[in-house]
Amino acid sequence: MEYLERRRALVESRLEAVLESTEPDAMTERLEHVSLSGGKRVRPTVTLLSFEAAGGELVGEDGCGSAASANAVDFAVGIELVHNASLVVDDIIDESELRRGVESTWAAFGHGPAIATSDGLLGEAFSLFGSDDRAMRAVAEAMVELGEGEATELVAEPTTESEYVELARRKTGALFRAAAELGAIAADADTYTIEAFGSYAERVGIAFQIRDDVLDATADAEKLGKPTGQDAAMERPSLVQITEMTPEEVNSRARSESDAALSSLSAADPGESTAVEYLRDLAEFVVVRER
Q1: The whole model's pTM is what?
Q2: Which of 241 and 74 is assigned the larger pLDDT?
Q3: Quick one: where's region Disordered (predicted)?
Q4: Domain 2-285 belongs in CATH node 3.40.640.10
Q5: Dmax over Cα atoms in the chain, in whole Å?
Q6: What are the residue ranges spanned by the domains of the chain?
Q7: 271: DSSP letter
Q8: Backbone phi and psi for residue 216, each to the nearest 5 degrees, phi listed first
């Protein structure tokens, strides 16, 4: 775990520095409320692991010993900020008062300040992607997918498994894809490799979302760190709700996405390394996690 903790520390250190430089102080407080209240940091970890798996090298205690290494850390922080911005909006839409065991942003500060906080997070994120056109394009494409997914869910709920998976790909898989692509881009990988890493992560993201549905239906809210039963209470589509599958069967569906992710990772032909081992472990972990 020391290997992962060091990479998480790189993200946390850079994230704190980015947030500390924001203005005014009220905005800084809100950005820190969202971004420093916990979180698994899965997406930025995917960025750094993909960077290393694609041949990049993280150097220096702050990750900034080379331009490529510094870009990888910045890209990792940036994708976490984009993710956090989306969570702020999700909580407003869902009227959820709890996120990561603390008050959601709108519950703590109000709806207007929450929307401004989401905008602020996106602004800070895109300032970190500006050094590379490919990075900007990858994230922009992911945000288009995410926005379309959110809009689709509000106006045209999925009624079949295939429609649900497409929604999950847009709402969750797209940001995972961008996270991995950013790592490969920072490592200056070729187009095929970037695409293969992206496909891996997109499948991981879909499995992650399907597992979320299972947890919403079965987990304890205190352990999960957010309210459970939201999907059923809000008549929001989840694979548990729109099919007759049991939570166990739905989890098996998540496992099939995990297996597909592993196949995509193999297609990237990254060789053997600690980073690759952890990427494989992540594909396995997302279908058994309890938070």
Answers
A1: 0.89
A2: 74
A3: 246-269
A4: no
A5: 53
A6: 2-285
A7: -
A8: -60, -35
